[in-house]
Here is the input.
Amino acid sequence: MKSNTTFHVITIVLAVTICMLSAQTTTAAVQKTIHVSPSGDDKNPGTEAKPLKTIWRAQCEANNFNQNMTGDIEVILHDGTYWSCENRLSETIVFLNRHNGTGGHDVVYKAAAGATPVISGGKVITGWKADGKGRWKAPCGEHFRQLYVNGRRAVRARSPEATGKSTRWFDLGIVPIPGMEYFDENGYLTTDTAMADWRNPGDIELCYYVGWCHTRCKVDSIVRDGSHAIIRMVQPQFTLARHKEGLRAELPHYIENALELLDEPGEWYLDRADKMLYYKPLPGEKMNEVQVVVPVLETLVELRGLLDKPVEHIKFQGITFAHATWLRPSRLGMVDVQANFEQHMLNRMDRMGVVNNVHNEDLKSPANIVCRSAKNIHFERCTFTHLGGAGLDLEYGSSDNVVEGCHFHDISGSAIQVGGIERSDHHPGDKRTTVRNNQILNNLIENCAVEYMGGLGVFVGYTEATVIAHNEIRNIPYSGISMGWGWGEEDAGGGREEYYQPYKYDTPTTAKNNRIEYNHIHHTMQRLIDGGGIYTLGNMPGTVIQGNHIHDSAHAVGGIYLDEGSGFIEITGNLVYRVPKPMNYNNKPQNRKDTCKEHDNWFGDEFAKDADKLPEGAKKVVEKAGLQPEYQDLLKK
Here is the structure.
């Protein structure tokens, strides 16, 4: 009997083991493979030998198999560029809940082995002819703000920046345009009377460095008035820029987007009235050989779910997302409040008592790849580049998403945006709108916010349990990571007493349990001030900033900065040096500083002199922070 019992036990164990292995095999199995190639045909069956041509057609084919999935569906993208503007009337690639993976499986859009597929929202410009002035021109009826020549972002025609000692307290080494002064509340006087003869004045932008902001205001008209020219500005944006809270736009620092400023190799100008594109080649560039791409789409890819039926279980692996633009600044300018959020055009009720319909709910700069009510979406080993807005946005009810091992570079605005700052974010009527449990891991984020310099490596609004870990963030004009919003005013009880607040809440915001850890953040604050490698606003209980390696910021504050309202945050095990101020608190009202626990950090330039003599704990920070070993290859790109 004893022997038989043992036999039955062994049989049961083996059966269970086989079932478990079978389940694992099923989970890992591929149910269907669909091949796509730019040289394919949408009438093909989607095999490797006869691939489809468009991602849209691959979506349709995947929908034939995704209702009761027994394994992943793989859409294999072969090498080449997928020009969205050549397919289906220049439409955004949209993923809805009907495109979901089901049964715990994913629909995976992945690069073929050794391939670098590019999803592009751009268009190639041809027909170039010399204009006899050292420039070349080509007919172009598109509207865009960026141009790429052989994969390099060209410079929109602009004036140089004058350098010198500013009289303002935040001296950035850049002074206003010489010969310009206020005329009245609608514009300026300038001694450069030739500006009155410039063509297309309504397309010209005056640009300002305003402390932590980078603002653009549009010109309305320019007329000669004796020995001066009068520059009238577009309203109400000009007034908003001159009267915004905090620091305000005064005299401009440079001018952008005029044909008369196209005088340097590598610059370009789009004459929208004549539908003609101008470019001055760099030495050695031959216009009959180069590839010139302009972005056409504003939203390149959108994952658009519903709160009760999110878009979910979709993966992107090894794909490059490129060539999209953002046109609102061309229509209205860009009045930066902070972090590339614009002043709302509704009447605002701000700290100064100006009547307003919203409070601290400024307009977010949109991303070119957007996840809205998206769940269990993975971006793995992807590249986000040549983008004219922000790069990637996880917003409105998006949860449990992972962005890992990706490369973000050459982006006009912020690289990644997680969550928002509206009432549905900080005090949602429906808890499903809360952005939670998203992870930003092992990404290389560099050379972003190149056009809208108030942008960030990573922006996080009101979110729960966001994890930003093991990223390398470098060469950013403003802060590396910014988390929170509202200056404490949306927190329970409100913010600083001296600020006028029209709305006060009795309950806390959704911001809590976030983690910023083991990131390598350096060479931030390269153009603006009053930010840091890591910057926070507002209460966020359970939030931890730990194990980060931060160094070499150009302007104040530079290190870890807990700004207004920041509360209930732990700061531990961070190594910070060669910055104007390693640790800064501006959260003293309501004793919020006392709610934050700062301990066991290494702050100061003495930790930059000799790596071998670092304390053991600091050495471990250097070793652990930044990209983990399996992602170190990103640094070689």
